[in-house]
Task: structure prediction
Amino acid sequence: MTKGDKYFREIVERILSEGSMDVNPRPHYADGTPAHTLSIDHVMCTYDLAAGESLFITLRPIAIKSAIGELLWIYRDMSNDLDVLRDKYNITWWDEWDIGDRTIGQCYGATVRKWNLTENLINDIKNDPDGRRHIINMWQEDDFKHKHGLKPCAYQTVWNVRYEKDARTSEGPGLPTLDMCLFQRSSDFLTAGCINQLQYAAFLIAIANHLGYRPGRFTWFAANVQVYDRHIEQAKEMLSRESIDCMPQIRLPEQKSFWDLEVDDFKVEGYPRDLIKEKNPQLKFDLGI
Result:
C-alpha cells in the first residue's frame, strides 16, 4: 500500500466518524442546492521523496498529467487565462470560476505574475540557500479587492535547503536537498485533495531539478478537510476498495530550467493506470461551486 493510500484511508475514516456538518455553506451544487460538507480540522501528511515514499492513491484513477499541467499554468505560465489552460493542457474544470472574460480574475496565476512569486523564490533559494524565508504566498488581500473567481485553496509553500552527509564518511555538508511544505486552507479531499498533494510534490521536484538539488521531504498541512454531502457514498465506496500493490514515483530524468519544462518532461514510473481503472474505476462527483 502506498503511503498516500494509507493517509487517504485514515483521513476519510476520520471524516466519516468524527466530521462536523456545516450549517450555512457558501458553495452550491449546479441545481442550486446548498453544498454541505462533513469536515475535520488540522490534518497533515508527510512524505520523504528521497526515500521513495509514494503519495499516489490507487483507490481511483488520478489525472496526473492534468494535475501537473494545472501547476505549470499557475507557477510557470503565471496565467489566469482559461483558454490557455484548455488549449495547452486540455483542462476545463476551472471554467466554473470564469468571471466573464475567460479568466479567473486576479488570483492564482495572476497573483504569481503580479508579485513575481516564482522567480523570486528561485532566486532567493539560489542566492541564500540557508535562508528560512523562501516562501510563496498567494493570499494577497490587495488582489482580492479586484474581481476574482476563487480565493486560493492551496495558498502557501515554504521551502528549506538541508545537506545530506556523505554516507561513506559521515562528513558534511554534502548533497543539497530541497524540502517543501504546502499550506492549504480547505481541501475537497475526494476530488482535489490528493491531486493537490501530487501536483505540489511535482512542483518540489521541478524546482529542485532547476537548482540541481535533490527533492526531499514534502509535507501537506490542511486547515479543513471535507467531504461533500453528495460524496459520502463515494467515500464509503473508496474505503471498500483494495489498494493496488505499487509504489509510483514522479521523475525528471534530465536537469532542465523550470521555465522550459513541459508536462511530458515529467515521467511517472510504476503507476499501473490500466489496472487501477479496471479494479478501482473512476467515480462521479457532483461539485459544489
Q: What stands out?
A: The longest helix spans residues 189-211.
